[in-house]
Amino acid sequence: MKMKLSGLMIFAALLLGGCGKQTAAQRDALENAKPGYQVVKSYCSQCHSLPFGDQHPAAAWPYVVSRMEGHMQSAHKLVPNPSEREAIIAYFQSN
Ligand code: HEC
Fold first, then answer.
1. Which of 4, 8, 31, 80 could form a disulfide with 85 if both were Cys (CB 3.0 to 4.6 A apart)?
2. Is the separation of the CB atoms in 93 and 52 below 8 Å?
3. Ligand 1 mean position to 68 CA, how many Å?
4. Does ligand 1 come within 6 angstroms of the Cβ of 46?
5. Which atom of ligand 1 is nearest to the CA of 85?
6. Phi, then psi, of 92 in degrees rounded to 5
7. Domain-by-domain residue ranges, the chain?
8. Rounded to 5 degrees, what angle do the CA atoms 81, 69, 61 make?
9. What would the pLDDT profile of 34-86 be if each residue is shown by its tens digit?
10. Mutate to test the pocket of ligand 1, among 64, 83, 88 (most ligand atoms within 8 A of CB)
11. Is the CB of 38 within 6 Å of ligand 1?
12. Rounded CA gap, 19 and 39, in Å?
């Protein structure tokens, strides 16, 4: 089920290629109620579009998020606090 859903979203992204807004809206509709998604949206869309959880194995997400925190600090963007950081990692690991 999890795999099917993300496969579907990637398909939708490819299908709509170039129409980022609509893709983001569709993703929103699917993800809004999931734990962590609101936190992910507020921090991880400050610079680029939201990545998908299946872009990395679960074990790699803490490293990716730490690297992003470095980017956030150098770019003077909002940086998640420790509990928000946990929520972000948990979201990507389970979606
Ligand atoms: C301050 C701007 C900024 C913010 C905010 C930001 N990123 Fe990034 N992101 C970057 C830059 C710059 C790159 C390309 C360089 C790199 O990969 O480190 C990137 C690349 C990525 C990539 C592709 C590279 C890879 O390792 O797969 C992923 C995935 C990613 N970001 C996830 C996130 C997540 C998750 C968040 C929220 C926690 C986030 N980003 C927030 C700047 C940002």
1. 80
2. no
3. 5
4. yes
5. 38
6. -70, -30
7. 2-94
8. 95
9. 999 999 999 999 999 999 999 999 999 999 999 999 999 999 999 999 999 99
10. 64
11. no
12. 24
